[in-house]
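Hi C.,

You asked whether I'd gotten around to modeling the 183-residue construct. I have! Everything is below, sequence then structure, no commentary in between.
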Amino acid sequence: MKVSEFARQNSVSKMTVYRMVKNGQLPFKRLPTGTIVILDDVHSKPDKTVVYARVSPSQSREDLEAQADRLVQFCNAKGWCVAQIVKERASGLNDNRSKLLKLLKDTSVTRIVVEHKDRLTRFGFNYISLLPIEIVVTNNASTDKEDLIQDFVSLVNSFCAQLYGQRKSKQKTEELIRKLQAK
């Protein structure tokens, strides 16, 4: 298979393919003309690397895009072909995130790349790491004390948001009742 065709099928640049060939990550053969041909039996089960970026609903879309870009750059530096980029704006405490659940159920996914453990989930990361999917965390730099404090702050923020949401909902309902009674 030509380098350009392999690059197109795996959503990477031709330079990434050449780098992978140079590093010995892809089986290839060089034709007498000097052309590099990628052999078809590249993987028995093809690697499917998925980037998962998540921000809290209060954070901006730019933060989400920047996070996804950093993760793709990390994968490219490792020579991994990114098959899919999953972006989600949801609380890390929410265990019913549709995009994450769909991703974890996909048996073709071999690797999930996240920036921090808490981007995947606030609690229960060790359970998810037991799945037959390689979980790669690009930034592990934190202490247990910092993790505990961050988890506590996240819990308080989540409960406050739910409480304020209930209050706002109650206020809207009361306003609607007043309008109906006025008519």
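If it helps when you're writing up: The first strand starts at residue 28 and ends at 30.

Thanks,
B.
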